[in-house]
Amino acid sequence: MEFLIGLGVIIVIGLFFANSYNSFVSLRNRVEEAFSTMDVFMMKRYDLIPNLVETVKGYTKHEQETLEKVIQARNMAVNASSPEDKMKAEGEFSGVLSRLFALSEAYPDLKANQQFLDLQSQLKLIEDDIAQSRKFYNGTTRQYNTTIETFPNNIIAGIFKFTRKPLFEVEDPSQRQNVKVQF
Description:
Radius of gyration: 23 Å
Mean pLDDT: 86
CATH architecture: Up-down Bundle
Structural class: mainly alpha
Distance between the termini: 85 Å
Strand content: under 5%
């Protein structure tokens, strides 16, 4: 009788370990899928940038430094390899991109150019998609991180080396400030 009780306890513990492990794998895969989705939208945005820069170049011949920074930041973001590097490069890219749009304010002809307006409209749609995918990524990551850090899951997560995933956060304090609009 004692043998059967001991065997039952071992089976229950084994099932708990297997269920927890499978949950971690499932959540980790959801985090990776969420990051990949966000990455696809960011790549679409990166692909639009050279067209936008070429359009702006025709109107802003003496703003070369800003345009070069935009392309440099885009290339850094495209070539980032790890999720952490991509997040850091994305923050820098967003800051430089906002300077590009600030340039358009100084050039009324550029603001009225249909190609520029079309590219800006496409970029806005992609920015909305990126914002939604960031929210989904952060929600999925929060769920994963919470699951691997709560007891007794943290013991099993430690055994199988499941580690925290980073949230997508704004690192540049200037991006948290309100945009100044003047008429």
